[in-house]
Amino acid sequence: MKPTNRNYRATFIIDNRGKEDSVEQIIDEVKNEITALKGEIANVEDLGKRDFIRVTDKKLTGAPYVQITYSAPGEAPSQLLERLRLNHNVYRTFIQAV
Prior knowledge:
CATH architecture: 2-Layer Sandwich
Order of helices and strands: EHEEHE
Strand order of the largest sheet: 2-3-1-4
CATH superfamily: Ribosomal protein S6/Translation elongation factor EF1B
Number of domains: 1
Largest sheet: 4 strands, antiparallel
Strand content: 35-45%
CATH topology: Alpha-Beta Plaits
């Protein structure tokens, strides 16, 4: 029996300070992580650089935001969060079911 896919919208804050990787390369890494979890990407939207309302690091007051809409099995969001936890190119991740 094939598991049913749900639709998700994930927002990522990209941290590319002092790195050679461009934002597009980091987005491709994140897309590869989603497809590795049997996800199908529907839309990628670059929201541009935004300033943070609450600054937790004085050296990072704003960063590029990217929103990816995808469909995947139900356990995929928690697995994606765990995979990206060790990726220092992604500063924050927020996933919601749509």
